[in-house]
Amino acid sequence: MAMAFHPLAASRVRLAPLLPAAATAAAAPSSSSVAAHHHHHRRRFSAIVATAAPVSAPTVFDFNAYMGERAETVNRALDAAIPAGEPPAALHEAMRYSLLAGGKRVRPALCLAACGVVGGREEWALAPAAAVEMVHTMSLVHDDLPCMDDDDLRRGKPTCHVVYGEPIAVLTGDALLSLAFHHVASVGSYPPDVDPEKHPARVVRAIFELARCIGSEGLVAGQVVDLENTGKSEVVPLERLEYIHLHKTAALLEASVVIGAIIGGGTDEQIERLRKYARSIGLLFQVVDDILDVTKSSEELGKTAGKDLATDKTTYPKLLGLEKSREFAEKLLSDAKEQLAGFDEEKAAPLLHLAYYIAHRQN
Questions:
Q1: Which is nearest to 121 in space by CA: 357, 354, 347, 339?
Q2: E strands, 122-213, where?
Q3: For the chain, N or C: smaller number of CB within 10 Å?
Q4: Secondary structure element (H or E) that encloses residue 43, with its range
Q5: Residue 90 placed within a domain
Q6: From CA 162, how far away is CA 101, in angstroms rounded?
Q7: Domain boundaries, position 211
Q8: C-alpha triplet 107, 111, 25: angle, nearest 5°
């Protein structure tokens, strides 16, 4: 079956205007700057990154170590962002349960790596990286609700509505979404060495990208069209399936990368190449997800396997078959690699390995 539907980017998803900016270099904040500062009951940036590993790339790239270090740093930021035990306790407990339940933190890692590849320091992008994970978790909490995809298992644990009930689960997602924007906009979320003249405009641009990827141009649009086409007797066209996943899945991955590049001071050309890279890996993520749903067990996935088949959901294996879906995944991986060709090889290594990880992950 021909796959001419793939030149995905510009024709069906409107490109946002780009923020021109130059990358700036600055010294890392010293550990002595870690103080007991608070901002609306949340620890400031310095307290979160004090124990973060240095961001120097090894000669031979150790992807597992890279992801482990970034996940630890992001998890500290997420833990610090939500008060424990403060009223309303039930809501904060549910937010922490969902946000700190594990996960590979792929989106935050992409955000940090994109900041680094354009010449910024990863610490500048930690607040946006945490924010995209908050948005991602919101989407999972809402996606699992009985009125949506109706799932009882997420990241190997009972879903939020199973543990806390549907009303709290809905409000948990709402609160996480609000917190994401609070976190990106807060002055206390950033280290003191960001460019005082260019940083505010970059933050505004990052907020725009984050908002755009969520609403009727992004994640929500994909979910609506997905719901409309689930269980239909007629065959869903490949172009519509691509629309669903470019919006429902790829949009937030795109925002993760683009926001990191903006905060890092990337040029228009760099941001655009990274946007195209992100769209390819975003669609790749969903193709692989569809493949795993029919080839892996619930234990291996940490969520209910075979759910797409059981609900007669339109997927790439359903429309293309398993082998053609795998071929499409390889094409998307090749496209992503092509967009990284113009960047410094060492700085681009995390993004390259993240693309390979997305293509060949097992859960």
A1: 347
A2: 153-154, 157-158
A3: N
A4: strand 42-43
A5: yes
A6: 14
A7: 63-360
A8: 165
197 within a domain of the structure (yes/no) = yes
User: pLDDT band at 155, cuts 50/70/90?
Assistant: confident
Using CA atoms, how far residue 300 sits from 141, 293, 295, 297, 310, in Å, is 20, 10, 10, 5, 18
User: What is residue 102's predicted lDDT score, i.e. its pLDDT?
Assistant: 86
Question: What DSSP state is assigned to residue 27?
Answer: P
pLDDT in tens, 158-176: 999 999 999 999 999 999 9
Query: 188-219 burial string, b = 16+ CB within 10 Å, else e?
Result: bbbbebbbeebbeebbebbbbbbbbbbeebbb
What distance in Å separates the CA atoms of residue 263 and residue 256, rounded to the nearest whole number?
A: 11
> Which whole number is the average pLDDT over 250-256?
96
User: Tell me, what CATH number does 327's domain have?
Assistant: 1.10.600.10
Main-chain dihedrals φ then ψ at residue 42, nearest 5 degrees: -120, 140
Judged by DSSP in three states, 30 sits in coil
Asked, for residue 269, whether it belongs to a domain, the answer is yes
* Token couple for 336: 């992503």
At 289, the amino acid letter reads: D
- Work out the angle between the directed axes of helices 106-117 and 268-295 (0-180°, nearest 10): 160
> Which of 175, 207, 192, 201 lies closest to 37, judged by CA?
192
Give the total number of structural domains in the chain.
1
CB 279 within 8 A of CB 8: yes
Instruction: Give residue 328's identity as a one-letter amino acid code.
Output: F
Q: 42 forms bridges with which residues in the sheet?
A: 39
pLDDT digits (tens, 9 = 90+) for 314-347: 789 988 999 999 999 999 999 999 999 989 999 9
pLDDT class for 15, splitting at 50, 70, 90? very low
Is residue 13 within 8 Å of residue 246, measured between CB atoms? yes
Specify whether the CB–CB gap between 114 and 262 falls below 8 A.
no
Name the nearest CA neighbour of 190 among 22, 30, 31, 47.
Answer: 47
Answer whether residue 208 shows pLDDT above 70.
yes
Instruction: Name 153's bridge partners.
Output: 158
Pairwise CA distance, residues 255 & 129, whole Å: 10
